[in-house]
């Protein structure tokens, strides 16, 4: 760490020198422009660049299938606006994989294709993205998936179960958008300034979005389990699962309301209510376990997995409540 003394020039202008090593590493010299970004009692400075789009290149010669898909996704989440995939000879299979990956990500489009490269560009203006809106949308999708998954289980509606499975892709796309926005705020203070949110709050949204994405995964798991059930479950078992679901949704809703609350006292109250709800749900699960003793082992195992997914969804709501409590706590 280096320190500098603030000086006053002209009677009203405060000046401070910057370390030469930092200036050299960032190509800052006489006549360079510097951007200042206030953040509470801190002031971040960064060199001003003429280009507004970040370009990244990746050699994909030896990448295929899921490895190639993950590579494109990683470049997207990392925040590159232009992604250039290079190779000694990009195959038709690789191109198809890249196009599928691009279609699964919000805002991307293949801009150029040649024998040795594929150029992908993000068409969205990052300053217009809202992490709050993305998380709100994730809340609606994940809880509707959970509701429909259990409705499909209740009626053994396999078409509805398949619809839940298909909607998981929409939730994953939003999760990747939230991750991209959050990583941008870590990389540059300008991104947080454009969002109009402190970076700590962006972290809270990112952490909560991860829990919502997991709720969607468990809704998908319930839908898959439903496809393997051929005969209706006993009414008392279904009623017990429905009661468990209602309690779990109440936990998640209370936690999300606490996360979005502007009043810290209200946020703290709702978050603590959500945490208390998680503890009460454990009692319901033990009661359901007693009902499962009357089922044959195979069906009991399937229902047990459904119950576990609903319970875990409530636990994820409890995690969001923990985040809301931290967000509402006094800031040092």
Automatic annotation (TrEMBL):
Residue stretches in coiled coil: none
Signal peptide limits: none
Residue ranges annotated for the SpoVT-AbrB domain, each copy included: 8-53
Gene Ontology MF terms in the entry: DNA binding
BP-aspect Gene Ontology terms: intracellular phosphate ion homeostasis; negative regulation of phosphate metabolic process
InterPro entries found in the cross-reference section: PhoU (IPR028366), PhoU-like_sf (IPR038078), PhoU_dom (IPR026022), SpoVT-AbrB_dom (IPR007159)
PANTHER family associated with the record: PHOSPHATE REGULATORY PROTEIN-LIKE PROTEIN, PHOSPHATE-SPECIFIC TRANSPORT SYSTEM ACCESSORY PROTEIN PHOU
Protein name: Phosphate uptake regulator
